[in-house]
Amino acid sequence: MRLFENADYTLIPNRRIGYIISGILLTLSIASLLVRGLSLGIDFRGGMEFVVGNTQDVSTVELRSALTEPLGGQPEVKRYGDTGVLIRASAAGDINEVQQRILSTMKQEFPEAEPRIEKTNIVGPRFAEDLKQGAIYAVFGALAVIFLYILVRFEWRYSMGAVAALIHDVTITLGIFSLLAGVVPFSLQIDQSIIAAFLTIVGYSLNDTVVVFDRVREYVNLLKTENFPDVVNRSINATLSRTVVTSVTTLIVVTILFFFGGEVLRGFSFALIIGVVIGTYSSVFVASPTIVELDRRLDTATT
Amino acid sequence: MQGNGFRIALTVFFVGLCGYYLYPSVQNLYVSYQMGQMEEAERVEYQENNRQRLERIRENSLNLGLDLQGGMHVTLEVQVASLLDQLARNKDESFNNILRTARQQAQEADVTVLNAFLQEFEAQNPDGRLSRYFRSESDNITRRSDNSAVEEYLQAQVDDAVQRAMEIVRNRVDRYGVTEPSIQAKGDQRIAVELPGVEDPSRVRNLLESASQLTFHLTGDPQQLQGAMQRIIEYYEPSAEDSAQIAAADTAAGEAAGEEMPQPADTSDAQMAEADTGETEDGTAIATDEQGGEQGTSLTGPGEDASQAGPQNPLLAAMQPLPRQQAPIAGRVFASDTSTVRELLSRPEVQDLLPSGVQLMWGANPVVTTEDGREAFNLFAVRAEPEMTGDVVTDASVQFRQQTNAPMVSITMNSTGARQWARITGANVGEPVTIVLDGIVYSYANIQERIPGGRTQIEGLESRQEASDIVTVLKSGALPAPVNIVEERTVGPTLGEESVRAGFISVVVGLLLVVLFMIMYYRTAGVVADIALLLNVILILGILAGFNATLTLPGIAGIVLTIGMAVDANVLIYDRVREEQATGKTLRAAIDAGYEQSLSAILDANITTFFMGVILYSFGVGPVQGFAVTLMAGILSSLFTAIIVTRLIFDYMVEERSMEVSYG
Fold first, then answer.
1. Is the Cβ–Cβ distance between B203 and B478 less than 8 Å?
2. pTM summary value
3. How large is the ipTM?
4. Which of B449, B478, B507 is the last residue of a domain?
5. Which residue in B198, B489, B500, B575 has the most chain A C-beta atoms within 10 A of its own C-beta, making it the best mutation to test that interface?
6. In A, which residues are within 8 Å of B520 by CB distance?
7. CB B318 within 8 A of CB B235
8. From the list B110, B205, B505, which residue is nearest A95 (CB)?
9. B213 — contact with chain A (CB < 8 Å)?
10. For chain A, how far is it from start to end, CA to CA, in angstroms?
11. CATH class of the A15-40+128-302 domain in this structure
């Protein structure tokens, strides 16, 4: 089977279409990030999270109101998997006491259920602050390392192109997280595993971009007579088959993770699905056009 | 095949190495499958006979993370502020202010409490001497010591406190008995504790956080206490002026109103003392308080009167005073109301009404349990200054009272402790004494006679388990400074099993689909890539086992992701081979060119992703690190299989077998 063999799409000449699509997506994302914001998970906000199993018959609405008084404030109560509920409370108070209050309230209000604590996640405020700092370092460290590596292996234009694509990908993925939070039936809160997913997206998007750039570098030396945009267009077409095949296999596995990986990995694999799609798109429609644009600017500047 | 000797050797070496490292894991799977098939008795016998072998297998097999096998991960933080408070002498208002500011700063910014304290001290007293507050003869810190010497001494004390806290935590964990716990220092003042397979997290929390400060207190005068309680109740008596102030507390406490509060009919001091007189087997002579009237008749709570009128007394709504008591018990409170009462009684104006030098402390275990399972606790009034502290304890053990078989903790003291104990008991015959652990009253009883020999016991315990936990914390020693849980992640065994199943299904289904896709797309070459892919999974697991890494759920996600991305290198090569073939090259030449030309792209792409793994590993914690490790392992193994192993296979097929390999 062969897909995109001898592909000859006029991608670079039509890059404006890509700009428009990216422009719309970026605007929407940034607008949503500004208006709706991101909901931070317990890792970065601090708090207590209990997953109480064996509660399939308990109504989350009733449970929320029943717990409001004992916990001194309305907790977040959500379904978790098939048989559990997730209860999020602020970090104040003794852990044992909070846990005891949740259990005794449930026993009182829902005598037929036999609640069992399946999972706890407790993060103190200072600890959350440290985790947040670590995440920020990780993300910026990653961007810096990539920029430097591409700078060493290629040249500065490619570096700019790669980093532009990465920022594009992460911004849109974040934007989609912000837009869909609360709309989809699973948690899209930003926690450590989502940061891990973002860095993986960064890695993946880069992987795609580097393959195209590698071919550009090769063709630039090979086809000295052709002008740069045509070389880039040709490189994209030459690698298109590989780009699509790798995206397909990666999409297959992350989709499987999304459906079979369980509740814990739901947000993580959702981020990866979006990231793979956007990352593939951006290596063709963002990273490559960027080096073409930079090259053109350079030419007009020097001549 | 010339020149392939090195490749063959390398492949055999790596596969052999992985086989070696994975062998115990496979054995482990096999053995647990076998044991699953056996009868209970047979299994026990098998375990007996093969104990050492089983242990070795388990130790060497691939570690599962806590999120997969179930367990508890706790990060403890040593409270340096409390340590400074303990170390300081001549504390004044200024010291307390500086410490409070330092505590707050450390909460908000990335600065240690000690540094914040030193800076704040410097800011407030530019010429001040730290030796005003901190002195230590043994460390040669005197009034004349300059600030840098004191700073050094304090830093050493902090480091030492963390070190000692770690040893004590390790000791407690060992006594608690978990298989393969892990205790590690993390940063300057944090300790990470991993406890696989913990069933009861709340028990572990108590065990870890317990400061293990054992103290012996005399109690306040009951007469004085009665008066004070009367005044405190009056303070909360709703009146026109302050009904607004009470309203808030009232709603919180309102729930308790109108309920019946069980109360001992008429438990007098004398009766309590009689309850269990006589010498116990330990030769001690303290009468145990039966903790007041389980058989007592139930009286109607005050809520009844209160509910008739509009505003209620919030304190009376939540707490049942024991007016006719001759004992130093301020009142009795249902478990659900303890936080309300704590809040009401902690107000400074209320604290001022208490007799001086007297502190209210909760009883450890419920005194009464109502029919519907609600538990009530005593609130004791004890003298704040302890008569003696638990550092004299040399040994502790769980014992049972002869007649009732109730569990208790028997304590042995050293000679200093014995002397003190004899003096205290001798001087206070007839008076009640309390044994307090971490600010909670465990034993409360009247002294019958002077107790020589330095032995006593803690009673009023709920279960054997509680007794043995107390023994654990007493024997492991007191923590140099309190520790707090700043992070906790617990996963129950059921959820862990579900995660293992989910991960396994994802790996298998992912592998299957990608394998099919590759065959469909690349035909023969796809089969070769699939062989490489399977080898990849084995190699990743081998690398994990070899480096003694832990497999977590995100780690499994990393493997699944690698399955999708590992074919990338092959895809790059194959597409290149197709291109070369299209230019009219022979198969042989096309393969050579394909591998050669795609190498730089493969390396660039993988090295950058590998960097991501490194960054994730350095900044992430726990499960995220697991993901980073498998990601890195996956990149290494996919590079190896794509560049070396598949090449080897193609060379064999094309050169030795002269096969016509289809690239689809």
1. no
2. 0.80
3. 0.89
4. B478
5. B575
6. 1
7. no
8. B205
9. no
10. 47
11. mainly alpha
